[in-house]
Write a structure and sequence with these properties.
This protein is of the alpha/beta class. Helix content is about 30%, strand content about 15%. It has two domains: about 90 residues, no CATH class; about 250 residues, Glycosidases (TIM Barrel). The strands form three sheets. Strands 6-5-4-11-10-9-8 form a seven-stranded parallel β-sheet. The chain has a two-stranded antiparallel sheet with strand order 1-7. Helix 2 runs parallel beside helix 4. It starts with 12 loop residues before the first strand and ends in a 29-residue tail after the last helix. Bound molecules: 2-acetamido-2-deoxy-beta-D-glucopyranose (2 copies). One 2-acetamido-2-deoxy-beta-D-glucopyranose binds next to loops. It is found in: Cytoplasmic vesicle, Secretory vesicle, Cortical granule; Lysosome.
Length: about 425
């Protein structure tokens, strides 16, 4: 299933994430959910001639980890040329949300390694700190497992469309140097058609099992059983899980601390309220499905979303712009959430599902549209001025281009229509 609000959802899905152990409530969290953070109230003023960025003796990063350097570099434009200067800077900054993710999907279309690495570069430019790697699905199984090699031998598009263990290590390492945590997703129990090519399904066994358990033909009970079991296994490995919201909606018994990813439709604020008032941390992606393309500057719709606006009443529409209304605001009444509930919203993800993107158009489809999501997840909630954002985004786009991210012009130049037509649906719903 493609998690689009415009489609009928298929079976429940599970996102099994190797998330860190830090409790989600621990705030503020910087990169990437560290075990502890100490904040000091005093400001340090550093003289320009004494300013040097070095790595501590025990630092696991090396000098190629350039996050801080990037923060102080400002390009100055002279005609066609760029010059980088270290500006005298005073920066007081901290992210609003600890989880700022980009979802990539390497099953519908295989993404070449260089595109994944380029995506990590762009993420670092935009202060994203989580790569949610939807690595396998119905369409293909590119993950090469050393334990079950036949899964990718038979389930990948071809033997050259796989991610070898060394590719995966390279992605993890490249991400780590950019302050990005990689969360792999093995979608289950739906979306596993590609697995079946390497492992024949054992239907009679499953039917016997359901009989023995007294489930009759109720596959929902089978799924709930499966989900609970797999989530318990993950907990026993001292890992935490992230699940798509269906698992929560279907009342599967969840371990405390299981993160629920809210992705469905326009009533996402109400769903965030429900999830957090049940005590579970939540991630929002519903309004940030960047695979859904529209005309013009759709970044504004992403920008105007506020994940914490579940404060009673309806979403207010302060402007008359259909595109933004469609993208960013729920219509129905939303119950007000408490401060405690709002603290359980740990962030969000911009998702670029892979039906209509591959190595040829992935980067320009994602950037700079995702930059708007990046700012929403980083900046304080009162940073909402669209005109100001436009100017900064235009400058930021130049910075990214000069940094080698060749992306789309259309989102900040009004005149160009999308070049890619959707000729779907190319995807089977799983049942
Ligand atoms: C570096 O690690 C060593 C050994 O674990 C420890 O004794 C030392 O205090 C650490 N130094 C710093 C600056 O953290
Ligand atoms: C946001 O609020 C803070 C704290 O009240 C204030 O200092 C800052 O100027 C505000 N920023 C904007 C863009 O309104």
């Amino acid at each position: 299933m493609r998690r689009s609000p415009h489609r009928v959802p298929g079976l429940l899905l599970a996102l099994l994430a190797l998330a860190a152990q830090a409790p989600a409530q621990q705030r503020p969290a910087l990169w990437p959910l560290p075990s502890s953070v100490q904040m000091f109230p005093q400001l340090l003023n550093i003289a320009p001639d004494k300013f040097l960025i070095v790595h501590g003796p025990n630092s696991t990063a090396d000098p190629s980890c350039s996050l801080l350097q990037e923060a102080f570099r400002r390009p100055t434009v002279f005609g066609e040329h760029y010059e980088f200067t270290i500006s005298k800077s005073s920066i007081t900054d901290t992210p609003r949300f600890p989880h700022r993710g980009i979802l990539i999907d390497t099953s519908r279309h295989y993404l070449p390694m260089k595109i994944i690495l380029k995506t990590l570069d762009a993420m670092a430019f935009n202060k994203f700190n989580v790569l949610h790697w939807h690595i396998v699905d119905d369409q293909s199984f590119p993950y090469q497992s050393t334990t079950f090699p036949e899964l990718s031998n038979k389930g990948s598009y071809s033997l050259s469309h796989v991610y070898t263990p060394s590719d995966v290590r390279k992605v993890l390492e490249y991400a780590r140097f950019r302050g990005i945590r990689v969360i792999p997703e093995f979608d289950t129990p739906g979306h596993t058609e590609s697995w079946g090519k390497g492992k024949e399904a054992s239907n009679p066994n499953i039917q016997n099992f359901m009989e023995k358990k007294g489930f009759g033909n109720d596959f929902t009970r089978l799924e709930s059983f499966y989900m609970k079991k797999i989530l318990d296994i993950i907990t026993s490995l001292k890992k935490r899980s992230i699940v798509w919201e269906e698992v929560f909606n279907d009342n599967v018994e969840l371990q405390p601390g299981t993160v629920v990813e809210v992705w469905k439709g326009r009533d996402y604020l109400q769903k965030l309220k429900e999830v957090t008032s049940s005590g579970f941390p939540a991630i929002l992606s519903a309004p940030w499905y960047l695979d859904i393309i529209s005309y013009g500057q759709d970044w504004r719709g992403y920008y105007m979303v506020d994940p914490l606006k579940f404060d009673g009443g309806c979403g207010k529409v302060p402007w008359d712009d259909l595109e933004m209304k469609l993208n960013s605001l729920p219509l129905n009444h939303v119950n007000a959430g408490s401060e405690l509930e709002k603290q359980l919203v740990i962030g969000g993800e911009a998702c670029l599902w892979g039906e209509y993107v591959d190595g040829t158009n992935f980067i320009p489809r994602l950037w700079p549209r995702a930059s708007a999501v990046g700012e929403r997840l980083w900046s304080p909630e009162n940073v909402t001025d669209l005109r100001d954002a436009y100017n900064r985004l235009a400058a930021h786009r130049c910075r990214m281009v000069s940094g080698g991210i060749k992306h789309s012009h259309r989102t900040i130049q009004h005149s160009q229509a999308a070049l890619n037509f959707q000729v779907g649906p190319a995807v089977l719903l799983s049942t």
